[in-house]
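chain below, 310 aa
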Amino acid sequence: MSETEQPTNDQKKNFTRVLLEELSSQSVLIPILAVITGLIIGAFIIILTTEEVYEAWATSPWESIKVGWSAVNNAYTALFTSAIGSPTRIINALQSGDSLEIRRAFNPFLESLVASTPYIFAGLSVALGFRSGLFNVGAEGQLFMGAIFAAFVGYSVKGLPMIIHLPLALLAGALGGAIWGFIPGWLKAKTGGHEVINTIMLNYIAFRLSEWLLSGPMKRPETFNPVSPTIEESAMLPRFFENPIRFHAGFFVALGVAWLVYWFLFRTKWGFDLRTVGANPHAARYAGMNIVWVTILAMSLSGALSGLAG
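prediction:
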């Protein structure tokens, strides 16, 4: 077939069939069904906790159903409008051509992206642990330690350009999380201590340690609140717009790290070792893989990802 020849009908049908098979696979269906199920359960909770529904029931069941539907509709409309913005406002802003109004109209969606950034890192952290057969429930504590390390580098190191200071702060955050992930990983590999129990305990240690640091050694001198000194501008993630829009480069960093995690797991020998140990540690041991090293590596990397969320 020449380069300019168009695909045949059979080829188009094969592509359509493959696409439908992918869309109907469990990896796609399960998240969709989970969201739909959550919305349905949420609707029932909204109806059952709305007093007007019971008041309308005294008039007629049909009136009660209408009131319940109205409550659900109002709640979910507010939910989606707050998350992605009002379609009417977006259209009006685009028609006006006012750049400030356009940014404000899209701000709810951009805020959702900002809020999703730490969740992306934490999700990658947990997913990496799962792939290795480990249950890292210490992402929150690792996030706290990553935030402490990154904040310290962010305010204490001065005079560096952003191209050096910002990556340094990010690496410090990853290091803080990695240290907090290394501890339960080492305990799991060397003593058999369950990572769930150890990470839960380390969460509380991280909370209290952060509280003590921000109330003492790392406390901003001019305030009574437990906050760190002001982070240097060179260590802050750059924003794409002026206030009040907070959308910054962290979202794209998270997407890049997501690709790196995929590449690491499925394109490197270390990633193969992690997945093999997670799937069958006994077979991995017979294959000559170092289970101790893999376990420590997996928990440390998982902690580093959570630290980046901080």
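The radius of gyration is 25 Å. Residues 9-84 form one domain.
thats it, cya
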